[in-house]
Amino acid sequence: MIKQLSIVLTFVLFLISCGGDDSADLIATYQDVQPEDIDDGLLVSHAEDEGMRVTFLEDLENDILDGKYTNMHSVLVARNNKLVFETYHAGEDVFGKFVSWKRSSVHNIHSATKSFASAFVGIALEQRNLGLDTRLFDHFPEYDFADDLMKMSITVDDALSMSNGIKWDEWSAPYEDPANSHEAMYRSGNWIDYVVNLPMEDSPGNSFRYNSGISITLGQFAANLANMSLGEFSDSYFFQPLGIKEKRWFIGPHKTYQTGGGLSITPRSMMKLDFFTKMTACGMDSKLFLVIGFLLLLHSKGQMQVTDIIGGLPLTM
Hints:
This protein is of the alpha+beta class and about 325 residues long. Helix content is about 35%, strand content about 10%.
């Protein structure tokens, strides 16, 4: 069941608090946190008009100002698919730098990027009239798998469900440790080449193994199908139709887009994706709704979770 109340909390989890705040003595009123209509595709409304208590939202803001919740970069609250609360605060970014966050500030969404990558794959497949049974590496002609038929048999379905069978361990060692496959990929100097040349440890489709490298490979797969860079492709067929302008990509060696965790967007854009995923946003390109069908298909098959900005908590469909 679609949630009536959707709350997007955009924040970076740190053990270090943001320290003293001279704003702690301020008393916020709803006027301070009522969203502004900036014609970005999001509908805004007054909380009371949507059946919410203004005092609840005022208390939430004052709790943040009083330091009850630390390092909260932004909080957005929607009711009935309308934005009713929006606030931004100062805090540390992912590099430990103290930043005064604003509406236009982009936040790295880490592994929630994978949901975007899945959407890109859905668009690319639809454009070429291909299905989930398409063999992934058929569209990487620079690699020869004549001696590895098991790897050659990996389908897009196997890759999206992270049951591709490639030997990969992203959880046993810390991310900074070269024993972590993700870190080893980073140090290789060629992310796609590293993933493609790893040995197989299981038959495709047999078992799940979390793998950010295959998500990056899927992003390149979409770009290869479209015969353009991932940046050009995603702008033309996803971000521009959604009216998402402020964003930043982490681009690695050989101009490889980090579609496993390297996208930064604004909280408003993340909320827009939430609305869009629930098929309630207005004024979108009709072709994009085919992508939502694709994402919901994967979700229903247990092959992926459409995530919120915390990157791991499934949205309630």
